[in-house]
Amino acid sequence: MITYAIMALIMLFLAFELLYKAEYMPEGNHLFDKQNSNAMRGFWCVIVILVHIPAAYQNRLQDMLGSFAYIGVTFFFMTSAYGLRLSIAKNPDSLKYFWRKRLPKLLIPMLLVNIVSLIYHLVEGKGISFSTLINFNGWVQWLLVCYVIFWAVNRFVTFDKHLPAILLFGGIGGGG
């Protein structure tokens, strides 16, 4: 019963956060500006975190909320890529320091998680290995590949007005 109450409070908090000071946006303001997209990414991060709560503590409300987590992950990565692309379009020179900016954001949290995991295994008396500190989770590897592709495309491909159509029809034609 307590898990339902906690989950209901979390859902009320999320609803409040979405609706508090909500207002009509006049034309010219964009849904995907930096402030809005960061707020939406934060919302979806909370949803994804709630889905990863161990099964022993889950309930029906979480299951219901969790059914939207796939949308949240997709939305998070799409808005992140959109933001990266806008950033590059606004300041093409930022590609020069792309890796200096991105790698710490990816590797520092990974290292912190690995340290916590190492400490947990030490406290539990399980076998530990210091190679745990440099363990690259599959998601970290996947993000690194996405970053490499993003960087390479933006570094070596010239964007013109026809590129989206070429990619779209190339993808449709190649999928068949």
TrEMBL record:
Transmembrane segments: 6-22, 42-58, 64-85, 106-123, 139-157
Record-level Gene Ontology MF annotations: acyltransferase activity, transferring groups other than amino-acyl groups
Domain Acyltransferase: residue ranges: 38-156
InterPro entries: Acyl_transf_3_dom
Residues spanning the signal sequence: none
Alphabetical keyword list: Membrane, Transmembrane, Transmembrane helix
Superkingdom classification of source: Bacteria
Name of the featured protein: Acyltransferase 3 domain-containing protein
